[in-house]
Please model this.
Amino acid sequence: MPAPSTARRPAPRLTGRTGPEHRLLAVDLADEPGRAFRVPPRWFPDVSVDLGITDPDFAEFADEADGPGTYRGLGDGDPDET
Model:
């Protein structure tokens, strides 16, 4: 029987998944299972808290998503809020 290897493996890295443009995927599991939209990390705290109290609900966030399906805040006209 061969001896177990004592070589150390490098720790895995999440390259490219931690930047400000890495969007998280929000998926409805209750009312419309499978409906989804993306959330940039900048908006995650707002979305998370609001979904926790269901005000607004998932559908309202999904309806505010842009063409590619990314939520970028409520449409208040501020171009810096992306």
About this structure: The mean pLDDT is 78. The longest helix spans residues 44-52.
